[in-house]
Amino acid sequence: NKVETFVGSFASEVDAARKLVKNEGDVAKTEVKDQLGELQKFAASGKTLTDLTKKASPSVFFVSTVDGSGAPSVGSAFVVFADTQQSFLLTSFTTIAAATQKPAPAVTLRKQGQDDLKATVFTWDEARDLALLTVPKPGLPALPWVPTGEQPGLGDRLFALSGLGSGGSSVTQGSVADISADGLQHDTPVGPQSQGGPLLDSEGRVVAVASRRYSPVGFSTDAVWFAPLIRMSCEKVLRCPNGAKPTGG
Question: What is the pTM assigned to this prediction?
């Protein structure tokens, strides 16, 4: 009787064991996927960088002008909005500071494979190292901004995009060290060619503006950079109705 009972229940016990193994396997796959997602944020792959650069590159330009002494002054700029007559780009005040005076030197936007664009300095915020340029070319694609109220967390990856590179742009990566009302602290390398360019999150959204001079705490460091958050540009340089990103209107 015991043998018969064991044999009769064997099939159902095997099925139960199979279901248990499958459930545990599904849970393990989910945990691995979550961990890989966190790892991907920390160390972006070459494909991630390539895709990010390809997506954002049409909106980022190399800025070339001269400083007050006539020496070359360079940086990057990115499109924030455009209408049917012109496009508007954010950049670093440091790069175009001489162009806020008269006589103003020429400010040129360059993109590999395209004609140079002559830019005009529209507004600026020296304290936050921000400036707004206009170019007489309508419809340039604007980069998306991180939504209002959504900010990166400590350790999240950041990508600084420059308008200078063999493919029309280049990218460096780092991470968030701190974030406050004064801006973003990060360790993403920012060279002269990158200042004024966008600091992007892993989804290609603008979080802040790369700067080599912005220093809300009163001192600078070579290891960690400070950057004004993108919506700080709405306080003086741009008009952002109801906290939204700027539009042509």
Answer: 0.79
